[in-house]
Amino acid sequence: MAKANAFYAQSGGVTAVINATAAGVIETARQHKDRIGKVYAGRNGIIGALREELIDTSKESARAIAGLRHTPSGAFGSCRYKLKSLKENAREYERLIDVFRAHNIRYFFYNGGGDSQDTAHKVSQLGEQMDYPITCIGIPKTVDNDLPLTDCSPGFGSVAKYVAISTREAALDVASMCESSTKVFILEVMGRHAGWIAAASALASDGPEGPPHLILFPEVPFDTDAVMARVEQTVQKAGYCVIVVSEGARYADGRFLAEAGTKDAFGHSQLGGVAPTLAGMIKDRLGYKYHWAVADYLQRAARHIASATDVKQAYAVGQAAVRFALAGRNAVMPIIERRSDKPYRWRIGEAPLAKVANVEKELPRSYISRDGFGITPKARRYLAPLIVGEDYPPYKGGMPQYVSLRKQLVPKKLPAFEI
Amino acid sequence: MAKANAFYAQSGGVTAVINATAAGVIETARQHKDRIGKVYAGRNGIIGALREELIDTSKESARAIAGLRHTPSGAFGSCRYKLKSLKENAREYERLIDVFRAHNIRYFFYNGGGDSQDTAHKVSQLGEQMDYPITCIGIPKTVDNDLPLTDCSPGFGSVAKYVAISTREAALDVASMCESSTKVFILEVMGRHAGWIAAASALASDGPEGPPHLILFPEVPFDTDAVMARVEQTVQKAGYCVIVVSEGARYADGRFLAEAGTKDAFGHSQLGGVAPTLAGMIKDRLGYKYHWAVADYLQRAARHIASATDVKQAYAVGQAAVRFALAGRNAVMPIIERRSDKPYRWRIGEAPLAKVANVEKELPRSYISRDGFGITPKARRYLAPLIVGEDYPPYKGGMPQYVSLRKQLVPKKLPAFEI
Asked: B274 and B319 share a domain?
């Protein structure tokens, strides 16, 4: 393929390391200026492509791009915007191709979760239909760790580390207060459909005894009596009880323990507030003094305590995406392949987008302990290496020095487009 | 004074650095074995003294004691237990003296907030009355920063750093999502009566523009219309709005926002939680998509991101307490005296317990901006140096290596005592 430009976009909920992936894409592309002209980044993700709001990353210094490696969240802006099917909304796909054509974009790098891989796959199909050759590479990202085929998703290791450390720290706090004060501590973590993040809290202790003493997964129907009995037993035995609950915890009939009542752009219910709901039950049924925390965005933005393993993998999938594109691969996604648990060894592999799109990887039942409140040794072997290593950002005056970009837009060439 | 033993106890809500103070006390005492025999620590604070549950710290290795410097929460256990006045409860004070006498304890180090300094003061008075010479030294500790006379309280700098960093990180997250998703993010922080912790969130940005765009202090009556108007303006101008709210935020009539009694989707009342209450108002009045987080114990236990300045000061007050005792001082508390803001210089001073006990230091009005939603340059000058420096704990396998102690109890000599 002759020299052409590339388009990179961040999609969906951001992570502590998605910018490390951006650095991997941009730095690798800059090493191949004979093949890739400029890397344009979508301002606020794919919306930027539709609106022809393209950030010219060539205007950013090498230092700023390197700084993305230690800067959390989406430096170019992300979005929750799911393109409908080609049939329902050919207009938007055609607009993408129009914008790509206008700016000589022949490489499309889409950095996101399952929905985004679906979009990348559709764009590749449309390129063929519209006879516009475009190389589409999906790049995995999601704190939820629910992408299939890849051993883990960049973004997950850092949230896992944050949750494990926060659980350990809060557990020490409750342990020291429980004699005369707080007996139960509840930490609510993300994970709408899959309990991967909640499971990672088990790394707070070396063994199954905990803390955390109870983990409540979306995969295990919430049984009020069983949970209350276990909380009471634990307080009697250990003096206190630490519970980590997934935002997606639900009853056997499918109702979530807490539902904010709003839905996001993908039609998913916006959850939050399981922790206070559970705290209320414990107060009513057992009468214990409690505290609860909801980590929410703090957990996925916590670059200050990112996993070095996660940062490396996030960078590596960005780098691999460009290499795949240059090698003529299309409609594929770089994945993490695990070679061994201990010592932990991994390498980059490749998966076709057709197999990735819209498939969610649940926490396997073999990872959840028989009683449903903890993880198995198998899960621990899987999770443990993902949080290894610290990768501290530089600090000045006590604060991490996160970069901000110039984000200079490329002049528009097309008429405006309503989304 | 002839050689005698010392008693050390941790009191009230624990912090990321109170164990650094314990290390300061124990390591300094170990350097003076000619004067101080053993340091006994109260198991679960003063309750341990009343129950004659004394942890023999001489059974802990030098390495374990040094490890306290990087271990959060109260390693010996703390308590929420306030001794009543001497008149109302002479029995408990007399028990303390009995226990001290039985174990030849002539030094009393009490590590806590205002209530604890009051207790330490009373014990010193009682010692005189009962003709039992006991040297009482209070040691400051509180995340709330509300102790008088000391420029700051050990424990505060680390929670300030945690809150400032978390606010910056979450703000980057919302900024990257706001175009198509979350527009408002609310972080609830501690501070029932004083807005020091909330104020520290302003360090997330270099200037008054934020984020955080609004800080809601307990000191400023909550005015729903004014807050909603400001949130709306901010979203229109910046595209998103980050709010940091103190758990003690209240209406002009004194009612806490957290008591406002909102209900979740199932009609259960939402228990506690200013953040979800405020989120509900914003949804109802402005319709913005929101996220909220409640840091709760995570903020005060976050040793992984403690302020190096705070760790140093926490150690120094422990060290100074022992030196004061050896110098024959009594009924005093070491304090932090600020010599200059920039460069930040401080030294240890001394305050009489009589002046410390039961006095709360509010956030001065001159630290709050005129509109009530931010801090002044004066406040920034005060706060900025307290979060400077990182003091990372050692890690293994991705997790901080916090020490746990043997906590071997000294054999009891007295009859049991009911508390």
From this structure: no
